[in-house]
Amino acid sequence: MPIARQSAPPPPRAGNAVVNSEGRMATSPPWIDALFGSVGVGVLAGVITGILIGGIGGRVAMRILVLTSADAVRGITSDDGFEIGRFSAETIVLLVLTAILGGLAGGVFGFLRMFVTGRAWLVTAGFTATCASVGGASLVQTHGIDFRFLGPLWLAVGLFIAIPGIWAVAMVMAFERLTTHPSLSLRLPIRINEKRWGAVGWTVLLVLTVIGLVDLLDDIAALRS
After folding, report:
1. Is position 92 within any domain?
2. What is the value of pTM for the model shown?
């Protein structure tokens, strides 16, 4: 006669805490640990890609614009306080700044990723659209000299929309790769009630994208006038 398998007994409880298989007491729900882990991975991915795409990529974009602009722009101080056409110690400041901004944005993504459902490519496309519109609107400014003297205008605007967009693609790819690493896969990614909250993350991304796009189009119209 086949021997019936007995199901494993539920983990013992001590009050509101659950004792895991290692005999340790887990006092928080699994999604809490996953949430902190997701934000932490987002910060890490954001810092790395922020330096590579925002810092180094930003300097490359400025160099391209220096080559396509009039010689008179060389030596002028940009809106961010950097001397146009010259690499200096201030570049280190830019790298640190982009690392901080990338970490903050990556942490926000890590939080939203708990609420955004869908395949990785769809999440990447949604977050990229949000970052390109919001990031582009924050970088493309109508005051100052950057977008008045650096040109052509379509190239300057295109580059500074592309930078946050490319950063988003790289950051999401790094995030998804890290969250599937064997050392992290036991904790991530765990979603928070997909049926109830699945649309919340997408709604936030959509609202931010629309707001950023409207602001960006207004800035472009002002620069062209």
Report:
1. yes
2. 0.78
